[in-house]
Amino acid sequence: MSIYDTLNSEQKKAVLQTDGPVLILAGAGSGKTRVLTHRIAYLIDECGVNPWNILAITFTNKAAGEMRDRVDNIVGFGSESIWVATFHSTCVRILRRYADKLGYDNNFTIYDSDDSKSVLKDICKRFQLETQQLKLRAIQTAISHAKDNCVDAREYALSSAGDFRKQKIAKAFIEYENTLKKNNAMDFDDLLLNTVKLFKDNPDVLEQYQERFRYIMVDEYQDTNNVQFEFIRLLADKYRNLCVVGDDDQSIYRFRGANIRNILDFEKVYPDACVIKLEQNYRSTQCILDAANNVIKNNYGRKDKALWTDEGKGELVRFKQVNIGPEEAEFIAKDICKLKKSGKASYKDIAVLYRTNAQSRLIEERFVYEGIPYDLVGGTNFYSRREIKDMLAYLKTIDSGADDLSVRRIINVPKRGIGATSIAHVQDYADRINTSFLKACDEADIIPGLNKTAAAKCKAFANMIKVFRAYSKEESLDQLLQHVIREIGYIDYLYTIDDSENVEDNERQQNVDELISKMAAYEEKEDEPTLTGFLEEVARVADIDNISEDDDKVLLMTLHSAKGLEFDHVYLAGMEENVFPSYMTLMNVTMILKDSKRRGVLLMLELQEQRSILRSLVQRAE
Fold this sequence. Notes:
The structure is a single chain. The protein is α/β, with parallel strands linked by helices. The protein has 4 domains: 3-21 and 30-94 and 193-271, Rossmann fold (3-Layer(aba) Sandwich); 110-183, Orthogonal Bundle (Arc Repressor Mutant, subunit A); 325-380 and 551-621, Rossmann fold, CATH 3.40.50; 382-540, Orthogonal Bundle (PCRA, domain 4), CATH 1.10.486. 53% of the residues lie in helices and 8% in strands. The chain contains 27 helices and 12 strands. The strands form 3 sheets. Strands 3-2-6-7-1-8 form a 6-stranded parallel sheet, sandwiched between helices. Strands 10-11-9-12 form a 4-stranded parallel sheet, with helices on one face. A two-stranded parallel ribbon has the order 4-5. Residues 500-504 and 595-607 have low confidence and may be disordered.
């Protein structure tokens, strides 16, 4: 019996349709990952395609890891040549080879959102750009959205003529882009935008990757933004063997720049596209699917589909109405305790979902009271903790001294007696001669205005980094970090931090120890581990990637974070007006109503009808 005979008819059709553009509309739980992995196997086994010529892209590290494992299992020998990665990972691999064509060193640093915010905060302070009407967050969002739409700082500035607010954003954008270039750094948006620039400015590089990736598959296509669309379009332009998988009903990332038109208009871009619908669900019972279908079918602008299952009707959706938040948290906690006590579920089989992270507080408090272990997705990310950011800044400085942001963070951590005035003198000198902050420290003895004591301390810091860099070439990564920690006396320094975030005296030290373990684990799994590679992997980690599947804990997370995950028992909290749908969603509808009365009325009625349908469905269980 062939492995392809285990597929249902539509899944098999999707697997066998290998040439030309293909749009697979895959409803939730319809086996899309199974289709993609079998499609890869079919290309290799039956069509004779070289694994080297296949690219499979998804959105999260977790999804990419799962697909990688499945591909390895089903394909076997040769699967290591297939690129299975996220958009950002794919772009990083390309830019590590060709970033020099864009004016960067190939060992560029990747800035996370906190790093980007720090750079922008400094720019806004220097040029007095932030006002009551224009906040830092709005500037950061505007820059990110511009990059999502393939617009760089120069183009944004040209389009801002006559708009005072946009002109201020353009000023910040230009300075931000210049600072990143000077620091040999890219943020997450740059990874995609710069790869698109690389392809457009260097046809020979584009052709090389078009030849390399003759068969391209993209998962979660409904969540792609404009720059991701352009990246895929360029890659697929020569051979046009592009297979995209998605579901317009699951498009929930508009606030992050996702453009649902990418999937809705796929057939306009590729008129010869083959469209296949996967509607058989393997994850849920029919009662749950009926509730979902009756709500979602009222959406404005969607491709018609209806999920079904042969798993039976199952239990009804339960509805519990409460008056206040604490009462809701108490009900959820006590119901979970009943499930656990009866042996019907382990804690790890349970998830509590809500619209925003702020809703978790009451639930957490009740869980603590009831003794329910839980993991919170979307809290303080491990890599965003102060002590971890410090250690990563040391590693980034050792790896590439061009990252001024990291160098300035650690030049006085632990305390070395290098004050803000001395740092300002060093920075002014670095800006004047167009060099890095670290190189300026190495030349501290000739910096005007810097006294001999401060100059000696800055120079000693630069020399220390040189010693660490030499050590890194001889020892393993985890040994390097342990050496740095010992030499700078970081553990002793941790105990001098008076910070209310410390729950226990040694919590920060435990986090540092965990970072050492993560470095050792990275070295063990990689054939050629490098410091640059480790820092690159850290930069791409999402909140959900830090959750261990072995922990017997209830998961608390937003609906956005839960996308694509499965649980035996799910609680939806906060299903009330102005929360779900959110106040901003209703405000957007009001704005649409002002712009277009007819369409606004349709959307308002749509929201009201959805709530009415859902209420009637779940109240049957009362």
